[in-house]
From TrEMBL:
SUPFAM superfamilies in the record: ATPase domain of HSP90 chaperone/DNA topoisomerase II/histidine kinase (SSF55874), Homodimeric domain of signal transducing histidine kinase (SSF47384)
Organism name: Maribacter aquivivus
Catalytic activity: ATP + protein L-histidine = ADP + protein N-phospho-L-histidine
Record PANTHER family: HYBRID SIGNAL TRANSDUCTION HISTIDINE KINASE C, TWO-COMPONENT HISTIDINE KINASE
Keyword tags: Kinase, Membrane, Phosphoprotein, Transferase, Transmembrane, Transmembrane helix
Tagged with keyword Protein transport: no
CDD domains: HisKA
Protein name: histidine kinase
Domain of life of the organism encoding this protein: Bacteria
Membrane-crossing residue ranges in chain numbering: 6-28, 268-294
Amino acid sequence: MNKKLFVLLVVLMSLSLIGLIFVQSFWISKSIDSGEEQFSSSVSEALNSVTNKITERESKNYFDRYLNAKDSIGGELKGTQLTNFFFIDRDVNSNEILLYEHGILEEDYGISSTFFDSSDGADTTIIKSYTSKRTTSIFREDIDLEGNTPRLNPIQRFEKIGGLNKMEKAAMEDVFMVYAKRVPIHKRVSKQEIELLLQRELENRGVDIAFEYGVYSNGLPTKVKSSKFKYAEANIYRSPMFVDYEGVSNFDLLISFPKKKRFLVQSILGLAMLSLLFTIIIVVAYAGAIYQLIRQKQISEIKTDFINNMTHEFKTPIATINLAVEAIRNPKIINDQEKVLRYLQMIRDENKRMHAQVENVLRISKLEKNQLDISKDRVNVHDIIEDAITHVQLIVDDRGGYIHTHLDAERCEVLANEMHFTNVIVNMLDNAIKYSEEAPKIDVFTERAKNYIIIKVQDQGAGMSKGVVKKVFEKFYREHTGDIHNVKGHGLGLSYVKKIVEDHQGEVYAESEKGKGSTFYIKLPLI
């Protein structure tokens, strides 16, 4: 994939993901705001309903007590008063006259009563009874032919006797309110009534949450409040109580919700968590996709590098074999047995070299597929190290270097495959030799750590950066040092070492610093 196209795709996908996260966050924030508005609206409705019901209950109590007091009057009538209202209308077309009469009979009693629970010490309350009488009459004016005085003949007459109408009842309620203002608030409404009404009204509106309440008079607290109520302007809902006909109230019912935020969050928690879960899945999938794209790009580059190295390493032996074959075919040389044998040996050696390369690749492939049969026996680590050193000793001597051993582990027997483990040590020594620009200076140590033996291969070569140390055991990985072929290899040696050591229930790791050499460690369990 083109690098610019790859970067463009990553940028577009990242912007889309950021936009998705922003939209989700905005939606959650708006949901909380909407929930808070709905919560406030429900609480306000509940509060208004509670205050109205308390006011209606008080007014009903006064009317009931008024009617009971009137019905229980046993004294003499002290006075009556009749108030009449008249309305007359005449229809000239039909000579009909409409007479509407509304009379209110007021009966005044003076009795001993505690009707209003007055605190001024008076023991007499004036109880008045009101009766409403409504009469509608229609008359027709008749004039006789002799010219006598006209006469009114009644045509229809309706009478209705009953109680007071709404306006008159409202006037009575106003009177009750005036008297009720003189009564202490804790006698007008109880804590139990407020709690019961608040709980019922809030539950009816879906607000099932603990609350605290208080009744305040002109901004000052009263005795009517819950035990844990605290005034806080930001979290208080209020509604006026006992409003008179002028819209004036001396009392406010206040309510607060200590767990309001938790309630609002829990109301959208399910959808928010589901949204968050899907967002996390998308982020993880996105990160995984980006990682895989980058990883595949790196693998593609590494494999290209590997093919180039393998091609380079096969090119030389193939060229050598071709030259040897051409030389043998030369009539001047074919009769020279010594030269023929030398060229045949060159062909054999180069063929073995290519065969070893192919075997190494196949061995790694089988390891990854768990198809490599590794039988383990009791072996001596020190013997394996000495045997491995003999494989590379000539190369080290040829370059003027050395390999020093410090085999100090008092116990050195492990359960391992001798051939594969020898290859492991050879690969580590070969790696130290290849990356030593000058004469190789290698030290091999062994030491015991509890029930483990630690093998340490230390060189004074080029060293590695921290980033390279993390990747050095990966398949096909090779550190580039300018010319890609200036160090022979194909990035399989240390990968093979890691696979074999892990198959022996061991660990392998490295420490290095650029320009100061590297140290490789193998940790194996002792028998």
